[in-house]
Design goal:
single chain; 261 residues; 6-stranded antiparallel sheet; globular; 53% helix; disordered N terminus
Length: 261
């Protein structure tokens, strides 16, 4: 029997540009939208990622459909809750929309995974298989977003570099000063840049990253003590206090919920 945890809230369609854009116009802040593929006055393929429908008007005159025979593009819309489950920092990358160039291998991958999701959706399958395809898709998309540098402002570039370090380096380091030193700026300037760009402080984003890693480790056979050691907490008690503060339950209670689901 399918549990509530296995149900994925998503929509996928393959339509002409006009219909896809009209669908985005009615999107809300709880919607994460991905459009692929289309060209920007050229032959290169891009993927467009949007959170809600902010600034869509700026794109309408620039988007040209890809050169496929039927001139159709994919629209994938996912509920924010699913994004937060698998990539809690992914939503922080976006300010309105993001346009990223895809290389040949990435284009082929996106075509394949979106086709499979489309098949699942048309069959009325919204389950563990869909979760699997979506989680892989989001992982690769996250890598593309991290790789690019779409911003012109120095603050935005700095904030993006901070996020890249946060996602790729040791997630047990919770001091903002560490990241400021790595980026050769003051803690104050880093906090200002990240807050202005993502609407959250570096400390908040670090906390999200640590909590996410803790949840993953709690799904393993590691003891609470071993997890607290891995995440460099002073003691299992301090880890428990930290985890409960940000999740409203203790590590043991969270692990029990997983086992009961």
């Amino acid at each position: 029997m399918e549990t509530a945890r296995e149900i994925v809230q998503y929509l996928i369609m393959r339509e002409k540009k006009e219909k896809v854009l009209s669908r985005i116009h009615v999107s809300n802040a709880e919607t994460f939208s991905i459009i692929f593929p289309f060209n920007l006055k050229g032959e290169l393929r891009y993927v467009l990622v949007m959170h809600g429908n902010k600034r869509i008007g700026e794109l309408q005159n620039n988007i040209e459909t890809t050169s496929v025979m039927d001139h159709k593009i994919y629209l994938l819309q996912i509920n924010n809750n699913f994004i937060l489950t698998f990539h809690p920092l992914l939503l922080q990358l976006l300010s309105g929309f993001f346009l990223a160039e895809c290389n040949t291998d990435e284009s082929v991958f996106f075509e394949k995974i979106l086709r499979k999701l489309d098949q699942q959706y048309k069959k009325g399958k919204n389950n563990l298989i869909s979760r699997f395809y979506l989680s892989i898709f989001l992982h690769c998309l996250n890598e593309i977003l991290i790789r690019g540098k779409p911003f012109m402002c120095r603050e935005e570039i700095l904030a993006r570099d901070f996020l890249k370090i946060l996602q790729t380096e040791n997630n047990s380091i919770r001091r903002v000063q560490y990241y400021a030193n790595k980026l050769f700026v003051s803690r104050r300037y880093l906090t200002k840049a990240v807050s202005n760009t993502f609407g959250r402080t570096p400390k908040e984003l670090i906390t999200i990253r640590v909590v996410d890693e803790a949840k993953k480790l709690l799904k393993t056979q590691l003891s609470i003590y071993e997890i607290s050691e891995h995440l460099k907490f002073e003691s299992s008690a301090s880890f428990t206090v930290f985890f409960k503060k940000h999740t409203q339950c203790t590590p043991s209670e969270y692990r029990q919920k997983i086992q009961d689901s």
